[in-house]
Specification:
This protein has 416 residues and is of the alpha/beta class. The protein contains 17 helices and 13 strands. The strands form four sheets. It has a six-stranded parallel beta sheet, sandwiched between helices. A three-stranded antiparallel beta sheet has the order 9-10-11, covered by helices on one side. Strands 3-4 form a two-stranded antiparallel sheet.
């Protein structure tokens, strides 16, 4: 095996990050973890998520008091970045960004459609000064179509993109189905992953052609793409997905079951696993029943099968049934709380928590990049930055401004 790189596979790339909140910063943190230099350009007010708390980081003031710093939310997607505070609504600020864009490889923004054109920071304007620039626009609905000018937020997109029509508990005679969003902003995260993938594809194309391009990435498109088998169930079989609680539309048994001390997840993906489950539960007759011998039959007759499994499973504790089923290679597991997740021996063994300390002394626990590279692993060199922490250095070192020019920009409120 070759020696591991300390710089990361994307260390030759520079990213201008004009995005805020989650989808855009999620995109650029992926690139930063893989070695790209990411310059996070913030307004004097900073990224909105710096204030999306509690909980907050805390810091000690000069008089020994404790005050809130950035919200925990901000720390989840802004590791490994430089924070530069520039008001590009001012002509002098926009000119600073254009100068940075001349040598940048990638720009990511999530302003409303056409929102950057008045500053001369839209794709066409920047392409004129840097044809190699890969410019990624992230919006709620994309650059075209009847909804293009609407603002789009994750919660809204989960509803419009179909996800909330299939999450939550099923409708009963006593209770109508209640739409439920996911516990994290999953549409934003989907979009961040698609955007990062698309950016790297555009860089690969640029390596061949020498030309950058514009990437139009929308939350709604990405949410629709992630409907996966549920989308296919409709497109192929005209079956409208509905809320099913923890049931799976295409697999049985595949859900959470009550046990003596809580719940356990059992996920049988084939007939062998189902037969092994029946043997553990002493229900061999079910495995031999032709109604349940195949997955298609189990899906058709789930209302008869599931109650029989539930009765037997309530005789076990969670740990007992997991141990028994693991011996028979039947996929199963607990429903962990978030504290239990980070205390799990597998999560610890995979080193999924990365502590980072920033200049103000705050030590921030961050979640590691999940993929493990054999020679060019993700790198963790900087904690989520304080607002404007790198402004002075960037103006001096990248734009070659002297102290007098920097102070004039600061006094006029163009930079902070």
């Amino acid at each position: 095996m070759s020696e591991k790189s300390s710089s990361g596979p994307l260390s030759h790339l520079t990213v201008l990050d004009l995005s805020r909140i989650l989808a855009g910063p999620w995109t650029t943190q992926i690139l930063a973890d893989l070695g790209a230099r990411v310059i996070k350009v913030e307004s004097p007010a900073g990224d909105d998520t710096r204030r999306w708390g509690p909980p907050f980081l805390t810091r000690e003031t000069d008089d020994g008091q404790t005050e809130n710093a950035d919200a925990a939310y901000f720390t989840c997607c802004n590791r490994n970045k430089e924070s530069v505070c520039v008001d590009f609504s001012r002509p002098e600020g926009a000119e600073l960004i254009r100068k940075l864009a001349q040598s940048a490889d990638i720009l990511v923004e999530n302003f409303k459609v056409g929102g950057l054109k008045k500053y001369g920071l839209d794709y066409d304007s920047l392409r004129a000064i840097n044809p190699r620039l890969v410019y990624c626009s992230i919006t709620g609905f994309g650059q075209t179509g009847p909804y293009a000018n609407r603002a789009g937020y994750d919660f809204l997109i989960q509803g419009m993109g179909g996800l909330m029509s299939m999450t939550g508990l099923p409708e009963t005679d006593e209770q109508p189905a209640q739409p439920v969003k996911t516990g994290v902003a999953i549409a934003d995260e989907f979009t961040g992953m698609y955007a990062a993938t698309s950016i790297l594809a555009a860089i690969a194309s640029r390596d061949q052609t020498g030309e950058g391009q514009h990437i139009d990435c929308s939350l709604l498109d990405c949410q629709v793409a992630m409907l996966a088998n549920q989308g296919a169930n409709w497109l192929v079989g005209q079956r409208t997905p509905k809320p099913m609680g923890n049931n799976h539309p295409n697999l049985v048994p595949y859900r959470a079951y009550p046990v003596k001390d809580g719940h356990v997840i059992i996920a049988c993906g084939n007939d062998r696993q189902f037969r092994s489950l029946c043997q553990v539960l002493g229900l061999e007759a079910l495995a031999d029943d032709e109604r349940f011998a195949t997955n298609a039959g189990r899906v058709e007759h789930r209302d008869r099968l599931e109650p029989a499994l539930e009765v037997r499973l309530t005789a076990f504790t969670r740990d007992e049934i997991i141990a028994r089923l693991e011996q028979e290679a039947v996929p199963c597991g607990p429903i962990n709380t978030v504290p239990e997740v980070f205390d799990d021996p597998q999560v610890k063994a995979r080193e999924m928590v990365v502590p980072l300390t920033r200049a103000d002394g705050a030590t921030i626990q961050t979640v590691a990049f999940p993929a493990k590279f054999s020679t060019t692993p993700a790198r963790y060199h900087a904690a989520p930055p304080e607002l404007g922490a790198n402004t002075q250095a960037l103006l001096r070192d990248d734009l070659q401004l002297d102290d007098q020019a920097i102070e004039a920009l600061r006094q006029s409120g163009v930079v902070a």
